[in-house]
Amino acid sequence: QVQLVESGGGLVQPGASLRLSCAASGFTFSVYTMNWVRQAPGTELEWISSLNSGGTDPKYADSVKGRFTISRDNAKFTVYFQMRKLKPEDTAVYYCMKGETRGPGTQVTVSS
After folding, report:
1. Phi/psi class of residue 58: alpha, beta or left (left: φ > 0; alpha: ψ in -120 to 50)?
2. Residue 112, pLDDT score
């Protein structure tokens, strides 16, 4: 059974940084592309980043490119999302996804 559990969210001021983690279990983590998506209140899910199985080909949405970095540790079955220079518009619930499966999410709130 696929399980994804996100952590690391919180309330921060604009310009701050956060690192999200997603612990995976129940599947062969090292062979799958992993994604981060987010959902702000009243909006649809927004894809923001993906990383291939080997961690060599990160992709980013324009909204986060240059500020956020995706990485993974296949030995720890974990994917990370380093977020820098956070803006109020980054406020959302952040989810990691494998295919169509996502975890419960972690709330990120950026506010002064």
Report:
1. beta
2. 95
